[in-house]
Amino acid sequence: MIIKPRIRGFICTTAHPGGCSAHVHEQVNTVQSMGSLSSNSSAPKRVPILGCSGGYGLASRITAAFACHASTLGVSFEKPPTSSKTATAGWYNNRAFEDAAISEGLYAKTIEADAFADETRDSVIETIKTDMGSIDMLIYSLASPVREHPRTGNVHRSVIKPLGDALNMKSVNVDKGEVFEINLDAESEEETLNTVAVMGGEDWEFWIDALQKADV
Predict the structure, then answer these.
(1) Measuring CA to CA, which residue among 68, 60, 71 is closest to residue 42?
(2) Greatest CA span in the chain, whole angstroms?
(3) Of 61, 99, 129, 170, which is least surrounded by CB within 10 A?
(4) Rounded mean pLDDT of 98-111?
């Protein structure tokens, strides 16, 4: 497959496995160059990362593993490659991280599933009990725009819009090098409630309650 970049606005919608691997290993090398934290008594040793495949979650997982020598259990919802499309960047990131961690003798496992689902919580808890016993740090870094509520079945979609007044601002098309203006209408009450349902902290509360109930 010949991989060509496809860019929409300021977002690249294609991912290159070699590029993702290089990006992950660059972060690993940076962390390792800064020295080990494993001798620090407060350094975590058993860390689940909810939303582990990119951004803050991936950076935190790399730091926990390669600075603190921690066992890490990642959760993310990524798309694998097909015969005509590359995988999502996070799918490649997860595998690059696992390869790097395992080569250093570190425990690294990734569960590819919807972190909002109760079934995923059950799977994570069972894995913790089997492989880790208990955890000493939990990182929550989910960045999904959609959440199917596990108790009601309702699907909530978040939006990025201003509260109160409409907003006029500049944006950039990085492919064409063009700066242009966009107008964002203010969020409706329904959009606000849906955004809170996705990102307002209820799911975090569900995770904490489940982990505490399971005594892990």
Answers:
(1) 68
(2) 54
(3) 170
(4) 97
- Cα(91)–Cα(114) distance, rounded to whole angstroms? 14
- Say which residues have a Cβ less than 8 Å from residue 117's Cβ, sequence separation at least 6: 148, 150
Residue 153 backbone zone (phi > 0: left; psi -120 to 50: alpha; other: beta): left
pLDDT per position as a tens digit, 136-170? 999 999 989 999 999 999 999 999 999 999 999 99
Residue 68, both tokens: 């603190």
CB atoms within 10 A of CB 127: 16
Helix %, strand %, coil % of the chain (to 5): 40, 20, 40
In whole angstroms, give the CA distance from residue 176 to residue 188.
33
Contact yes or no for 106/17 (Cβ under 8 A): no
